[in-house]
Amino acid sequence: MEKLLKIALSQYGVKEIPGEENNNPVIMRYFNEIEQTWVKNDETSWRSAFINWCALKAGLEKTDKLTARSWLHIGNRIETPEVGDITILWRVKPEGWQGHVGIYITNDENWVYLLGGNQSNQVCIKPYPLNRVLGYRRLLSRS
Predict the structure, then answer these.
(1) Partner of 85 for a Cys bridge, out of 4, 101, 104, 124, CB 3.0 to 4.6 A?
(2) Beta strands 76-78; 133-138: pairing state
(3) What does pTM read for this prediction?
(4) Does domain 2-138 have CATH number 3.90.1720.10?
(5) Is 43 helix (H, G, I), strand (E, B) or coil?
């Protein structure tokens, strides 16, 4: 997971360019390199694309999907996360389809801190309510 974390941190601060006409070429590269070439702008949700891109570069398994909850179905399910594990959260409602995915950094009694993409339209570390965690996954090597 150290390699995944280093790759993600190397992208820290990458931001969307506002508006559908202007796109950050770095974010568009995430989509293209994970073979989501149909995406035409950085306004498309890119949280899962970012984690897929980081996993690709780290030689780890990936979902190849742009849905955050797709991460619940790969890797090993774990109860106690370590730095670099994948964390999947629900958005809107727990039983819905919407979610968020990021790389686990730490947590306290109320918050989980994730390194991820499309967090306030950028790559950064941000806190999320701990009660929104759907699961933690440890990715396996793609050998």
Answers:
(1) 104
(2) antiparallel
(3) 0.95
(4) yes
(5) coil
